[in-house]
């Protein structure tokens, strides 16, 4: 199995399931309600809906970088899009799934030798960026799991 296939497998495990560490992104999001997505059980922290949109942003950023687009700075309102709550929850989930597919397709367009190359001067290698996307997913899946537990004790 080549390295591209290994990375794809890890992207899928961290996002869809069968992760070694515990629940993958979609597993941890599976039972989140629109109200739960909009809630802020920790007042100074981002909510689940915002984190979901943030993950979608960075999957898209990495996909664009892997393809060679120069994406250096990400404005705050793009990095952490505002989550409108309620009916916007299904759209946020769809945006995340679409961004994940975009990343898988970008990875699939590469040749093995491109993994160790930066997509543009000053960028980290594609290999580092792709593994960073995996790590980013798992980090935020853990945050979401904690936020869900915090929400369990909140009266609605």
Q: What does this 3D model show about the protein?
A:
The longest helix has 27 residues, at 126-152. Helices cover 61% and strands 0% of the residues. It has a single domain, classed as dinb family like domain (Four Helix Bundle (Hemerythrin (Met), subunit A)). It has helices spanning 3-15, 25-29, 34-38, 48-67, 76-79, 88-108, 126-152. It contains seven helices and no strands. The mean pLDDT is 92. It has 156 residues and is mostly helical.
Largest sheet: none
Weakly predicted, low-confidence segments: none
List the domain count as a whole number.
Answer: 1
- Shape by Cα distribution: globular
Helix content: 55-70%
CATH class: Mainly Alpha
Q: How many beta-strand runs?
A: 0
Content of β-strand: under 5%
The CATH topology turns out to be Four Helix Bundle (Hemerythrin (Met), subunit A)
CATH architecture group name: Up-down Bundle
CATH superfamily: dinb family like domain
pLDDT averaged over residues:
92
- First CA to last CA: what distance? 50 Å
The sequence of SSEs as H and E is: HHHHHHH
